[in-house]
């Protein structure tokens, strides 16, 4: 991480004392909203001055009465992470005192004029800042936008979409969101062949194809499976986090909900699974995550690859409960 400390960017001293916080649920992403000078893009030498400008404007904001720059960190187009209030201090940017206590505030130098889109380096810097808050500042796994839980357009549609996709690094690789690692090795559940089973019946029961099961288990002739043989059962491929956020609509939502219902997670459905992700569906996801919390990280109701896998396995008796 390319961290720029307060003394390195020439921060003015705060005008009061900070409220100490030992932990948060995670991080909220912001943008500046106003115009961000386009000239910064090609000249990192100007970025520190821009952070000083932000601090000055916050200190001069009488109605807010800020004691310092409001953000915990600010990330420039070149991926440098400028220390704002920093770790373990309540920020002033999330909208009210309660919101400021439960998430850190990380701001991208993006606005409505000049620099209006995040650069790849900036997205990397945002993930660096998120991971830094998690590793050293007691932040939990939640990554949200300022607009979550507060009436604002911040952090703009483009950054908010990125947050909704789990705040991924631009080149792929680890996201900054809720830890949801790809399963290593044990991604497939194990099924023991029973008397009367055929490979096609087994594949059908587990929502996959004969070819997939045969390939995963090195079976050359599907007719030659034996009672007592242990078969690795693959989960359907994870279709992407965007299908499972509140308000999403797709056949994948219904597939997930069918598993949640079969696994009897959370409050029951009145009608049944649907293609819409509603509050109740997120509560059911949360119930599954709370049960497997050691593996799945914070129970935030959002579905990533591992939550998808566990929901599938629990619904099909492939994972203990
Ligand atoms: Zn904001
Ligand atoms: Zn810069």
Descriptive account of the structure:
The structure is a single chain. The protein is an alpha/beta fold. The protein folds into 3 domains: 3-164, Lysozyme-like (3-Layer(aba) Sandwich), CATH 3.40.80; 189-233, Membrane-bound Lytic Murein Transglycosylase D, Chain A; 241-315, Orthogonal Bundle (Muramoyl-pentapeptide Carboxypeptidase, domain 1). It is 32% helix and 15% strand. The protein has 11 helices and 8 strands. It has a 6-stranded mixed β-sheet. The chain has a two-stranded antiparallel sheet with strand order 7-8. The longest helix is centred in the middle third of the chain and has 17 residues, at 120-136. The two termini are 40 Å apart. The model is unreliable at 173-186 (pLDDT under 50). One zinc ion is lined by residues 30, 93, 146, 152, 154-155.
What are the main properties of this structure?
alpha/beta; Lysozyme-like; Membrane-bound Lytic Murein Transglycosylase D, Chain A; Muramoyl-pentapeptide Carboxypeptidase, domain 1; 6-stranded mixed β-sheet; 11 helices; 8 strands; 15% strand
């Amino acid at each position: 991480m390319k961290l720029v400390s307060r003394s390195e960017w020439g921060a003015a001293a705060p005008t009061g004392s900070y409220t100490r916080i030992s932990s948060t649920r995670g991080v909220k992403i912001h943008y500046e909203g106003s115009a961000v000078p386009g000239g910064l893009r090609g000249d990192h030498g100007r970025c520190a001055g821009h952070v000083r400008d932000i601090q000055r404007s916050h200190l001069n904001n009488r109605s807010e009465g800020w004691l310092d720059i409001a953000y915990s960190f600010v990330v420039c187009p070149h991926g440098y992470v400028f220390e704002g209030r920093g770790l373990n201090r309540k920020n002033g940017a999330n909208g009210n005192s309660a919101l400021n206590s439960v998430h850190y505030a990380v701001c991208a130098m993006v606005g409505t004029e000049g620099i209006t889109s995040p650069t790849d380096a900036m997205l990397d810097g945002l993930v660096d800042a998120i991971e830094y808050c998690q590793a050293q500042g007691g932040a939990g796994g939640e990554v949200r936008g300022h607009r979550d839980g507060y009436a604002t357009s911040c952090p703009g549609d483009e950054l908010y979409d990125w947050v909704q996709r789990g705040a991924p690094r631009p080149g792929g690789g680890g996201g900054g969101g809720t830890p949801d690692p790809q399963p290593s090795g044990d991604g497939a559940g194990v099924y023991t062949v029973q008397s009367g089973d055929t490979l096609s019946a087994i594949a059908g029961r587990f929502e996959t194809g004969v070819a997939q099961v045969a390939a995963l288990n090195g079976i050359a002739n599907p007719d030659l499976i034996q009672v007592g043989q242990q078969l690795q059962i693959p989960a359907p491929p994870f279709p992407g986090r965007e299908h499972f956020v509140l308000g999403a609509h797709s056949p994948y939502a219904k597939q997930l909900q069918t598993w949640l219902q079969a696994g009897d997670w959370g409050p029951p459905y009145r009608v049944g699974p649907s293609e819409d992700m509603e509050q109740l569906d997120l509560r059911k996801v949360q119930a599954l995550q709370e049960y497997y919390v050691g593996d799945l990280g914070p129970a935030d109701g959002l579905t990533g690859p591992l939550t998808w896998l566990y929901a599938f396995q629990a619904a099909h008796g492939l994972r203990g409960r």
